[in-house]
Amino acid sequence: MNITKKLSKIFRISAVAAAICPFVGAAEVASAEDVPASYSLSLEAVYANAFKKAARGGVDMGGADFRWNYNIDSENQFSLGVLMLAGSENIATNWDLDTSNLGLLAGYRFSFPLVKDKLSFHAGLRVGMAFVDYTIDSGRVGGWDHYRSDSDFCAIYAGELGLSFVLNEQWSIRGGYELYGNTAEIGGSDAKFNEQQYHLFQLGAEYKF
Q1: Residues 6+ apart with CB under 8 A from 123
Q2: pLDDT in tens, 83-120
Q3: First CA to last CA across the chain, in angstroms?
Q4: What is the pTM of this model?
């Protein structure tokens, strides 16, 4: 009687183990295919189109966006980047405004594939600090050049959408749109500017180590 019970118990355990084994094997295979963590560098040319009119300090600018990226896997990426923008525009009669933004940003980006191993869509957020300055040149009067300037350290923020196209194991091309803003308050009286926002259009390349 005892032997019969033991054999029955062994049979039940064996049946359960046999049912579980295929799923365990599948899990091991899936984990082996996971993309390992890696680092990459990216550099993109940037055109910044200002929300506000030039008379309110909204000067269109150009520049570059450099990022050091940590890729957790194929979908999640953290970055530390430097954004450099500068521009000049006539904002009133005999008034030329030169302005620049130099920012340090930390960001997170999520990607998902559109075409496997070739094309992916990404979305992300970035925050940081920037040095923002401006100079107004009012021309030459009475033998003197008249100008005034101001600057501010301020918070900056950005939200992005874009595409990335893989060329090979190391190189990919990426580009997209970013809504960028700063919280700077500069100037005074008739030339006081604050909280500028820009449409950023970016195109560049990424190199993965």
Answers
A1: 109, 110, 159, 160, 161
A2: 999 998 887 677 788 889 999 999 999 999 999 989 99
A3: 66
A4: 0.76
